[in-house]
Amino acid sequence: MDDKVIIAKRVALELKNDDLVNLGIGLPTMVQNYLPRDAEVYFQSENGIVGMAPVPGHGMEDPSLTDAGGGHVGAIPGAAIIDSCLSFGLIRGGHLDVTVLGGLEVDEEGHLANWMVPGKMVPGMGGAMDLVTGAKRVIVAMTHTAKGKPKIIKKCTLPLTSIRRVNLIVTEMAVIEPTEQGLVLRELAPHVTKEQVIAATGASLIVPDDVPEMPIAEDALALTEAVVS
Amino acid sequence: MKKGTSCIHAVELIPDGATLMIGGFIGIGSPHRVIDELVRQGRKNLTVIANDSARPDFGTGKLIAAKLVRKLITTHLGLNPEAQRQVIAGEIELELCPQGTLAERIRAGGFGLGGVLTATGIGTVVAEKKRTIEVEGKEFLLETALRADFALIAAHRSDYNGNLEYSLTARNFNMVMATAADKVIVEPEHIVPVGAIPPDMVATPFVCVDYIVERGDSYGR
Question: Which terminus of chain A is less hemmed in, N or C, by CB atoms within 10 Å?
């Protein structure tokens, strides 16, 4: 299974019915594809919609209805359109249950850096700083390493997104929970050992005696199907 | 007051060096005809306040590609390599702002507030050179209000008086920007008789709008 699919399938299990969720662009967007058909999870997009749905059938897209990446999307029955102030009021005011974002680095304090590489890449933070600071739960969905180098490290070297400690890190190798005591290894992906995770991590890990195998959403029924059918 | 004006005249009102708020999110809900006319007339040294720099050939990105922008106050350049290049080369002065903070700074400018207090950005590079203020034991960053000489916004429909209705996620920053500039120019997709937009559907009241860009000699141009 592709690393990103493993990550998206595991993150999908974190979303509960009635959650209001914001998925970042890229890997996090894949999470919606692995929710069970009967899931009642609501997606917010910071450009101004509560109740975003996958793109409708070809030729049915509206040029004025997009996600935060500018891609066409649909809307569920009962969706609401909001302006940027209200959209970020929901994010900053504690109305958003979960945000799932990608990461460049996460450190032992659970600090996330995901918005710039000085001198090389100036994409800007977009809504990431607001999301990480304001959401009730922050889940970082990222590959464990980049070009063989650990992304989970002692101290972030890149500019931080927020000083708020993220709640969970999900990679293709493991699930790690940042806590006050440090980074706790909570789950191991199938066929991955504790030693492999430790070797691929540039930070100290608290490793309990018993680390269970990562459950992965079995049913890959895309929400797309559920909505379109 | 007659608010209808040609796109050419609307842009002639804007001087070189003006500060512009421009609505849109990656060009969705941007006033594309006004942007094209700014490029055609070659307005220079602009300060642009916008959510993002869109793409080099779309939305606010066209102004950057034409090198008309001196300073950019924005949240995201990720989809515009030319904007990033100009920033790294020092050709554009960049003030990056978290998206929620940008929205609130504009709201403050439009609503008569000096600024807003937010937890977003605390402990990051965004907080550099800014005041932090403690309120009931919690630390906040003081983010000051933003205003512009002109707000260039897009709407789905305007009535003859300038009551505006938006469509889906093309609403985004247009609604708040309509409150925060000395002159507000709207480019609607449709101009409809007064009363065609029911009062409950008016998202921006006519009192905020100074100029309505008329339809050109052919539909949509």
Answer: C
